Amino acid sequence: MSNLIKRFKEDLHLAGYAERSIQSYTSAVLKLQRFYNKPLEDISEEQLRQYWLCCQSEFGWSAATLRISYSGIQHFFRKTLVREWNIFNDIKWKREQTLPTILSLEEVRKIIYALPTAQSQTFYLTLYSMGLRLREATTLQVKDILSDRGLVHIHAGKSALDRTVPLPKITLLSLREYYKTHGNPKWIFPALGRNGGKNADQPA
């Protein structure tokens, strides 16, 4: 290991970087050195510019890979070699916007019913089928289930506003079966504890 790379790693440690980041940043700097096959201190700003152009156009690096390369190399030249080059202010690779994976209903069903307990199965079915946030689901109360109207009353949800959401029949049936296992007078999902949640005064 060269003295410069050793110093670079020490600088990263002092800056509080995690070991994984240190390894990634060091790898980025070493790739640059191998590309030009010359001492790092002899690489010019223009050569660095041409390197990233090549990585982008010739090697087909993704924006995420380029950002890692940039982070490591700019820290090396700015902090270890103390070079304030304009290129570090000019370059910016945007984060790639990708669509989330959309699961089919059958895939969701398999995931939910593979969960280990009746509580977790019912909880995540409720969460998914009604589009609730975690806190909205955990704090559901018995009085919130308007089964005769096919609705659920959500308290202090988004923007601290109350709202009602449709209650799918499959979710209602699952909630009824699960409720039989604890019978808590207040909470749909009570903290189970030693008595299985029957007398719990807190939600799960």
Molecular structure report:
The chain is mainly α and 204 residues long. It folds into two domains: 88 residues, Orthogonal Bundle (DNA polymerase, domain 1); 75 residues, hpI Integrase, Chain A (Orthogonal Bundle). The protein has nine helices and three strands, in the order H-H-H-H-H-H-H-H-E-E-E-H. The protein has a three-stranded antiparallel β-sheet, with no helix packed on it. It is elongated and about 75 Å long. The mean pLDDT is 88.
Key features?
204 residues; DNA polymerase, domain 1; hpI Integrase, Chain A
The top-level CATH class of the largest domain is Mainly Alpha
Order of helices and strands: HHHHHHHHEEEH
**Which percent bin holds the helix content?**
40-55%
Mean pLDDT: 88
Q: Beta-strand percentage?
A: under 5%
Give the CATH architecture of the largest domain.
Orthogonal Bundle
> Number of helix segments?
9
Q: Any idea how many domains?
A: 2
Distance between the termini: 53 Å
CATH topology of the largest domain: DNA polymerase, domain 1
Strand order of the largest sheet: 1-2-3
Rg result: 28 Å
What overall geometry do the principal axes of the alpha carbons give? Answer: elongated
